[in-house]
Write a structure and sequence with these properties.
Blueprint: E1 7-13, H1 20-23, H2 34-38, H3 49-52, E2 58-61, H4 73-81, E3 85-88, H5 93-102, E4 106-108, H6 110-115, E5 121-125, E6 130-133, E7 138-141, H7 147-154, H8 158-166
Parallel strand pairs: 1-2, 2-3, 3-4
Antiparallel strand pairs: 1-5, 5-6, 6-7
Amino acid sequence: MSRNESIEGNVWTFGDHVDTDVIIPVRFCNTYLVEELGLHAMAGTDPDFAGRISKGDVIVAGMNFGCGSSRETAPLALMGAGVAAVIAASFGRIFFRNSLNVGLPIFESPEAARGCAAGDRLLISPREGRIRNATQKTAYAFAPYPEKLLEIVECGGLVPYVRKRLGR
């Protein structure tokens, strides 16, 4: 995600309490290669997910998405599968921070989590704090990130952000 860029993609829905072992089962966590992890994204609940998702699609889920262990491989696996963003009613706190640290945009919107259906087309404006559902002709708000956090995500994560700040 670059500065002032919107995210546009089709919705994949998941329920409440999707834990990190469902997002990327531990048996696949023997690498940090994003593309390899992506082949197994969501394998704990939908083994065919990674083969069906299109690059740029969006996951919409219920409460407590990313709960469970603190594995950084969970957001990396989603990115490797092509997920452009995750919207949920709420997130596991460690997953939330890990996602931002690796540059995966995630947005908390209980209204969008309830109102979006699989296959809907979304347009997400991170700086405006707006999700537009083009399929249902509805819109939802979320609290935009503070400026520094938005810069981290726009840089592609914490490491690229620090490199940029250090001029490397």
